[in-house]
UniProtKB/TrEMBL annotation, chain A:
Residues 7-145 form the DUF3291 domain. Residues 148-163 have a biased composition (Low complexity). Residues 132-163 are annotated as: Disordered. InterPro entries: Dimeric_a/b-barrel, DUF3291. This is DUF3291 domain-containing protein.
From TrEMBL, chain B:
This is ArsR family transcriptional regulator. Residues 1-24 form the L27 domain. Signal peptide: none annotated. InterPro entries: ArsR-like_HTH (IPR011991), L27_dom (IPR004172), WH-like_DNA-bd_sf (IPR036388), WH_DNA-bd_sf (IPR036390). Residues 192-201 have a biased composition (Basic and acidic residues). It comes from the Bacteria. Residues 62-92, 192-214 are annotated as: Disordered. It holds the Pfam family HTH_20. The lineage of its organism: Bacteria, Bacillati, Actinomycetota, Actinomycetes, Streptosporangiales.
Amino acid sequence: MLGVMHLAQLNVAHLRAPMDAPELAAFVELLEPVNTLADTSPGFVWRMKESEDDPTATLTHAYGDHLLVNLSVWESLESLWDYAYRSAHLGVLRRRREWFLRTAEPYLVMWWIPEGRLPTVAEGMRRLERLRDEGPSPEAFTFKESYDSSQAASRPAAADARK
Amino acid sequence: MSEDHLDALALLHDPVRRSLYDVVAASGGEVGRGEAAESAGISRTLAGHHLDKLVEAGLLESGLRPQERRGPGSGRPAKVYRRAGGERSVSLPPRDYQTLASVLAGVVELLGADEEAERAARRAGRRLAGPRGDEPVEAVLRERGYEPYAEGDRLRMRNCPFHALSREQPVLVCSMNLALCQGLLEGLGDDPERARLDPRPGECCVSLSKTNED
């Protein structure tokens, strides 16, 4: 069986203040339009939501306070790239220093998953950890050093079937 | 490798091939043989021959577009051409500014020196505009390789002159590009606020408002 692979991504940001602080008001206001933009972008597959009703609710997790976590799935690296850097989302990224602490560590990790499978925050955090410790690999990579889905080591059988 | 680039670019010395390349590049998308032939003022067969040469050299890419009419007699899918994504450059003697630029962009990112980089880019834009006096910004942008074109009430730009770098450090490079464009406008005695970030897949991240003067 020739398995279609999708791209999972997790990114984290360390907030400068709690979400309800006035410093973050402009950011909170942008959550709904930016998430709607993601949801309607070509190649968007899925994103983990905290709430179906409240678009400003961010993911709750056990990885520390003031840590914003995003987890989503895309059809391809190019579709995620175009959303992140070739849409109005770029303008939000430009303002990241207003809301997030600067970090020298990688804050975004990507990996390939079989179509239809949904990643978990724990899985993404493990992969981010791996990226930080060992550098990019087919199991945990970045835009700058990416691997295509045929190199996804987690599914050697699928990789064989593709070429 | 640069030998290949030189061979590819040398193909454009032929004026017919050059004009076919320009027609395809300026379209911003796919152009059929017939359309390209008509724009270049040559026969369809000759256009096809030269377009295929440009594909062979990697300057263009070709694909097939299904005919609009369906059913018997609608014919085979039409061959279409678009500009290839790769870059070609030749420098004699050999120079490599890309590697250094990439290293420096990485350092700016590491230092979190985006704002300083944007200010420097704005100054660079003003300097570049310096000798151009009162020329319209569109002419200056065209000459700098941005390939501006009008769309609605905006002046958009088809080509990103910093493409490879913007893939590596999109937020930094796009912010610097915006600052550079604003500096250019300022240096030309124009309103820097005409330029704003307006990203779209496959194009430059900046667009300009049209002037109301003309």
